TrEMBL record, chains A, B:
Its EC number is 2.6.1.19, 2.6.1.22. The lineage of its organism: Eukaryota, Metazoa, Ecdysozoa, Arthropoda, Hexapoda. This is (S)-3-amino-2-methylpropionate transaminase. InterPro entries: 4NH2But_aminotransferase_euk, Aminotrans_3, PyrdxlP-dep_Trfase, PyrdxlP-dep_Trfase_major, PyrdxlP-dep_Trfase_small. It comes from Diploptera punctata (Pacific beetle cockroach). GO terms for cellular component: mitochondrion. PANTHER family: 4-AMINOBUTYRATE AMINOTRANSFERASE, MITOCHONDRIAL (PTHR43206:SF1), AMINOTRANSFERASE (PTHR43206). GO terms for molecular function: (S)-3-amino-2-methylpropionate transaminase activity; 4-aminobutyrate:2-oxoglutarate transaminase activity; pyridoxal phosphate binding. The keyword Nucleus does not apply. Belongs to the class-III pyridoxal-phosphate-dependent aminotransferase family. Keywords: Aminotransferase, Pyridoxal phosphate, Transferase. Gene3D superfamilies: Aspartate Aminotransferase, domain 1 (3.90.1150.10), Type I PLP-dependent aspartate aminotransferase-like (Major domain) (3.40.640.10). It is an enzyme of class 2 (transferase). Its cofactor is pyridoxal 5'-phosphate.
Length: 497, 497
C-alpha cells in the first residue's frame, strides 16, 4: 500500500498536450483507465474516524471550527478511486472531495506534469492575469477552456472558485442589463458615478437575480442570496431581497407520473413569470435567472429539458439573462461535458459558470456580455494558471481514455442497480435519478439516509448525502463498471441490514 | 538571459522547513538575498507593450475584455526583482503582480519545493479541507500560518483570495453578533430557520458593516458594498445600504501638520460614532467595522496609530467587531509581518484578513468568533494546501534571509529618496508616505502621475498607480538597497524630464 503512490510516478508516461481537438466528439476506442497499483477493493481496519483521525481532529478543533471533518486522509497513499485515511482504512470513494476530483487520486499523468520545468515555473510565478498575463495564456485559454466551451459560447472569464464565479457572473449580468437600459451609450452620468460610491441608486441600482428554492450557488453574500438549500448556510447573514421561485418537485418513477410532473413544471414556470412581473413592478427588476441543471446540494432535484427550454424562453421574453450554474454538474459526470447539453435548448444559455472538476473557476458567456470597460470584472489574480495546467492534463486523459463514454457505461450500470434496489427495498430507497454517474436516490427519512451512509463507510465506501433525504453518487470519471459492481455489491449488503 | 531561469533550479539548495520558531524575532544576520543570475539592471528594447505583446493582446481580446493588460510576461525567464516580457524587455518590478509576489520571480527555494514527491502530491490531490483534510493539515496550520499570526489571535480560517476572505470574515462577524443577541443560546427559532430560506428577517437579519470612503475590500457583492475607491469597481452593481464614514485625509509632511491632522482624525471618528448611532436606530445595526491599515487601492491613504486605537475603542464600546483588512499590507512589506503591529493597539483586533503575499486567503480571529456550529463558514475547498506549501517556503526564506530587516533598510533608502525628490520637484511630487517598502507619493494630477509611470516603464521600471493621483511602490521583500539606488536613479532621470 505504501508503495502505491511512489510507483505511480515511475509508470507515468509523457503527457500529450491538447492540440485543438474538440472533446465533444470522443473516439470510442477502449482504454484501460484503471491506474496501475489501484487497490482491488476497500479495507476497513478501524472505526471511521479511527484513533489517528480523532487525535488530529482534536488538534484541528483547537485552531478552528472543524465539526464537519469526517476523517483525515493520507493523500500520499491514496490512488485512483481509493481514498486512504490516516488509520490505514482504504475506501472506495464515490464522493470524491464533493465532486471535485475528476481523475481520482494521484493520477500519474498529473504527477508527470509537475516534472516539467515550465510547469513548475507556472506554479511558482502566479501572475495578476488581468494585467500581466504570461506568454502562453491566450493559447492556454483557447486550447484548454475553449476546447470544452458549451456550444455557442465563445467568451471566457477565469476565476478561482464556484462562489466567486457566480458572484462575478451576476455582476457581469448587472452590467449587461444596465448597459441595455442606456440604449448602447457608453458613458455614465455624474450622478451614477457619485451615488455608487456610497451604495445608493442610480449608480448602485436596485436589480435582482431570480433563483429557485432548493438551489445552491455559493456562500459569499451575493450568491448566498440565491442559495436556498439549507438554513445552516444562511441563518444570521444579511441577504438581498431577491425573488425565489419554486423548483419542480417530481414524482418518481418519471415514466409513471408524466402528467403530474408536467403540471409541476407549469406551476413553477408560472411562478417565475409572476415573480418577474412583481419584482419589475416594485422597482427591483430581474436582470437574470440563475439555475442549476440538477440542484445538487439541495437534493439532486431534477427538472425536465422542457422546463429548461421554457425557462430560457421566459428569460428572453423578459430581457433577463439565463445563467446555468454548472459548478457541480460541469466537467463530464453526466456523460456530457455540460449537463445543459442534455436539454436541447434553443441556443446557448447566456452565461455558464464552472469550478470544482475544472480545478479553477470562471464563466463562459455570449459576446454581448463582454463588459465595455476594463476593470469592471477584475481582481488581483483572475484565476490561476497552475490550475489550468492541471485541467489541461485532465482533459487530455478524458480524451485519451474516452472517459465520457466510460461515465455513460458505468452510470448505466449504477442506475440499473439503484432501480433494482428501490424495487427490492422500497422501504429504504426511492426516486433513483440522474444522468451519467451523477446519480442520486432518496430515503424515507434523514435518519435512514444517514444510517445507510454510515454503514456504507463501515463497508469501505465513502458516499455523500444531499438535501434532507438523498444519497448522491459523485465518483471520479475513472470509475469503471467494475467499481460499480463493487459498489452495488456493498450497497446491497447494507440494504439487507 | 534565457539561461537565467534554468540555472536557478540547479543552484537551489535543500529547503529547511519551519520548525516552530516565531518569525517576529528575526536574527539580524546578514545574507545575500540577491538571486544568482539576476540581471544587473533593466533593458528596454521595444515600446511596452512591444509588438509581440500587442499581438497576444489582440488574441486575448477576442476571448475576453482584456483592456487592463499592460504586457505579456515571459515568466520562464523572469528572475528575482526583474520581470521579462515577451519582447525581451527586462523590467525592474516594483509593483510585483499587485503586491502578491513576496520573493520575486522563480525563487530557487520555491522551485526546489516542487521536486519533493509529497509536495507534488499535495498539488495534485486537492482536498475538500473542511471534510477530508490531509494528515499534515493541522501541523501545517500550526507551523506555517500560526507562526505568523497577529499577536493575540489564535484561530485561523483558510480561504482562497482577498474577496472571499473578507466575505467570510463578514459572515463570521454577523454570526458572532447574532449569537450575542441570543445571549449565548445555541438554538435557532423556527421562524429564523424558515425566514432565512427566502432572504427575510429575522433569519436574514438587517445588519451592516461600517466601512470608509476610499476603502477597497474586494469585488464580490458583500465586500463590494464596503469598497469605495473608484466608481468603475461599483457602478451598475446592486449594493447593501451600509454606512460609509470619512477616512482621514492628512496634510503632508505629517510633522508640519500635526494639529490639522489630529482634528481630521477627530472629525472622522465622530462620523463613525454618528453613523453607528444612526444605523442602529434605523434598524440596521453595525455588527462590524472594516478598515485597511493603509488604504491601498484607494490611494495609499494612511491614518495615525491614535486613529486606529480610538477606532478600536469605539468598536468595543458599541459591540461591533473590528476587522483589519491586511490583504495588501500583510506579509512583511511594511517591515512588520502585519501593518497593524505598528499601531500599538489595546489588544488584538477581532479579525484580521489576508491574501496576496500569503498565496492563499483567510482570516485570523479571536476564539469567541469561532462559529458554534459546523457548515456555517464553509465551502468545497476552504483554501488550498498547495498554496500553503509555497507560503511555507516563503516564510522560511523570510526568516533565513532576515527579509523584514531588509525591507526596513531598503524602505528607509527609498523613503529618503522620495523625500528628497519632493523637495527637488515640488511641482511633480508631494506627500511621500508609507512604512517599510510599502511607500507612495502623490502627484498634482492624474495626468502627471500616469505620465511618470509611463516614462518610468520606458526606463525599465514597472511601477503602479493607486487612487487618482498616487504612485505606489510594492517591491518584493527581496528588494535590496542596491535595487533602491537603481530605482531612485531612474526616477530622478524621469523627474528631470
Amino acid at each position: 500500500m505504501a508503495q502505491m503512490g511512489r510507483n505511480c510516478i515511475s509508470i507515468a508516461k509523457k503527457i500529450n498536450l491538447l492540440n485543438g481537438f474538440k472533446l465533444k466528439t470522443q473516439s470510442a476506442r477502449a482504454a484501460s483507465t484503471v491506474i496501475a497499483g489501484e487497490p482491488s477493493g476497500p479495507t476497513v481496519k478501524t472505526d471511521i474516524p479511527g484513533p489517528k483521525s480523532k487525535q488530529l481532529l482534536e488538534e484541528l478543533n483547537s485552531l478552528q471550527q472543524a465539526g464537519a471533518v469526517q476523517l483525515f486522509a493520507d493523500y500520499d497513499n491514496s490512488l485512483g478511486n481509493y481514498l486512504v485515511d490516516v488509520d490505514g482504512n482504504v475506501l472506495l470513494d464515490v464522493y470524491m472531495q464533493i465532486s471535485s476530483m475528476p481523475l481520482g487520486y494521484n493520477h500519474p499523468e498529473l504527477l508527470q506534469l509537475l516534472t516539467d520545468p515550465h510547469n513548475m515555473k507556472t506554479i511558482v510565478n502566479r501572475p495578476a492575469l488581468g494585467v500581466f498575463p504570461g506568454a502562453d495564456w491566450p493559447n492556454k485559454l483557447k486550447n484548454v477552456l475553449l476546447q470544452i466551451s458549451p456550444p455557442g459560447l465563445s467568451q471566457i472569464t477565469t476565476m478561482m472558485c464556484g462562489s466567486c464565479s457566480n458572484e462575478n457572473a451576476y455582476k457581469n449580468i448587472f452590467l449587461w442589463y444596465q448597459q441595455k437600459q442606456r440604449g448602447g451609450g457608453t458613458s455614465f452620468s455624474q450622478q451614477e458615478m457619485d451615488s455608487c460610491m456610497i451604495n445608493q441608486p442610480p449608480g448602485s441600482p436596485s436589480l435582482s437575480i431570480l433563483s429557485f428554492k432548493g438551489a445552491f450557488h455559493g456562500r459569499t453574500l451575493g450568491v448566498l442570496s440565491t442559495t436556498h438549500s439549507k438554513y445552516i448556510h444562511k441563518i444570521d447573514v444579511p441577504a438581498f431581497d431577491w425573488p425565489v421561485a419554486s423548483f419542480p418537485e417530481y414524482k418518481y418513477p418519471l415514466e409513471e407520473h408524466e402528467r403530474e410532473n408536467e403540471a409541476e413544471d407549469k406551476k413553477c414556470l408560472a411562478e417565475v413569470e409572476d415573480l418577474i412581473e412583481k419584482y419589475n413592478k416594485r422597482g427591483t427588476p430581474v436582470a437574470g435567472i440563475v439555475v442549476e441543471p440538477i440542484q445538487s446540494e439541495g437534493g439532486d432535484n431534477e427538472a425536465s429539458p422542457s422546463f429548461f427550454q421554457k425557462l430560457q424562453s421566459i428569460a428572453k421574453k423578459n430581457g433577463a439573462a439565463l445563467l446555468i450554474d454548472e459548478v457541480q454538474t460541469g466537467g463530464g459526470p453526466t456523460g456530457k461535458m455540460w449537463c445543459h447539453e442534455h436539454f436541447n435548448l434553443d441556443g446557448p444559455p447566456d452565461v455558464v459558470t464552472f469550478s470544482k472538476k475544472l480545478q479553477l473557476g470562471g464563466y463562459y458567456h455570449k459576446s454581448d456580455f463582454k463588459p465595455l470597460q476594463p476593470y469592471r470584472v477584475f481582481n488581483t489574480w483572475m484565476g490561476d494558471p497552475s490550475k489550468l495546467l492541471l485541467l489541461q492534463g485532465i482533459l487530455n486523459v478524458i480524451q485519451r481514455d474516452s472517459l465520457l463514454n466510460l461515465v455513460q457505461k458505468s452510470g448505466e450500470k449504477l442506475m440499473n442497480g439503484l432501480k433494482e434496489f428501490q424495487k427490492e427495498f422500497p422501504h429504504l430507497l426511492y426516486a433513483a435519478r440522474g444522468r451519467g454517474t451523477f446519480l442520486a436516490v432518496s430515503c424515507p427519512s434523514t435518519k435512514i439516509r444517514d444510517d445507510l451512509v454510515a454503514r456504507m463507510k463501515k463497508k469501505g465506501v465513502q458516499m455523500g448525502g444531499c438535501g434532507d433525504y438523498s444519497i448522491r453518487l459523485r465518483p471520479a470519471l475513472i470509475f469503471t463498471p467494475k467499481h460499480a459492481d463493487l459498489f452495488l455489491e456493498r450497497f446491497r449488503q447494507v440494504l439487507k441490514g
